[in-house]
Write a structure and sequence with these properties.
Order of helices and strands: EEHEHHEEHEEHHEHEHHHH
Helix content: 40-55%
Strand order of the largest sheet: 1-2-3-4-6-9
Strand content: 5-15%
Distance between the termini: 49 Å
Length: 262
């Protein structure tokens, strides 16, 4: 499977697909192109009967640093309709990965921030390097973790989410494991082996049964429907229109503290 600009996608003889975020020079930040390509990759993987399990990782030093800076700049001049369309594209991408009828195993190193932490939430299990960092850092910019919110809450629950969802603080892999965002921690040098061990059980299970069991687990969990998606997208559009976002993002690009920061 080829043809992507921001991703690599390879499948081995066992049916293990490796989906790699491939913008290492941008710390694998989520651009509009990457969001579209992740949505397409999810559709391809879902339709490929040869694929048994998918491992999601990031090239370079970071799993995913969150939103792309150029995308953020563009939001200043976008209309509300354009902001909603961009946010809905992200929401659809997360939905496609969450509903992928194959097990999705995250391999996290470096950092998973903002949208990167959201990608962790749509994985069925995440194996993280012991020195990895996580965070829902949107509130530092005057924004909110809106489109990723339904999946984060579904994964870790509302109570645990209150510890990390709106403080903007980063936290380590041990805390991510306690929260339920990470299933297993491995030393950095043993990360690949740990991911391989997490993948192996699915190759002994019936593929159709795995798919049906995953669909049942999603159906029995918190409902994430069109109303939920629309609510999260509208909330993000509202946040971009607030003066706090204008100040927070401007301060970020100017490399200064926003006026509320001490």
């Amino acid at each position: 499977m080829t043809g992507f600009e921001t991703l690599r996608l390879e499948t081995d003889a066992r049916g293990v697909a490796r989906l790699t975020l491939n913008r290492p020079d941008k710390r694998n930040a989520l651009s509009a192109r990457m969001i579209a390509e992740l949505t397409e990759a999810a559709a391809r993987l879902a339709a490929d009967a040869a694929v048994r399990v998918v491992a999601l990782d990031g090239a370079g030093t970071t799993f995913c640093a969150g939103g792309d800076l150029d995308w953020m700049r563009a939001q200043f001049d976008a209309t509300r309709a354009e902001r909603i369309a961009q946010a809905m594209a992200l929401a659809r991408m997360l939905q496609a990965l969450d509903a992928l009828p194959k097990p999705l195993i995250g391999r996290v190193h470096g950092a998973a921030l903002g949208g990167g932490a959201g990608l962790c939430a749509v994985c069925d299990a995440v194996v993280a390097a012991a020195d990895a960092r996580f965070g829902f850092t949107e509130t530092r910019l005057g924004l909110i973790p809106a489109t990723i919110g339904p999946y984060v809450i579904a994964r870790i629950g509302a109570g645990p989410a209150r510890r990390v969802f709106f403080s903007g603080a980063t936290f380590d892999a041990a805390e991510a494991e306690r929260l339920g965002l990470v299933a297993q921690i491995a030393p950095p040098e043993a990360l690949d082996a740990a991911v391989e061990a997490a993948v192996a059980p699915y190759l002994a299970a019936a593929p159709g049964a795995v798919s049906r069991a995953k669909a049942l687990a999603r159906a029995l969990g918190p409902r994430i429907d069109e109303t939920t998606l629309r609510m999260s997208v509208e909330a993000l559009a509202d946040a971009w229109e607030d003066p706090e976002a204008q100040e927070g993002v401007a301060a970020f690009f100017a490399r200064r503290k926003p006026h509320w920061s001490f």
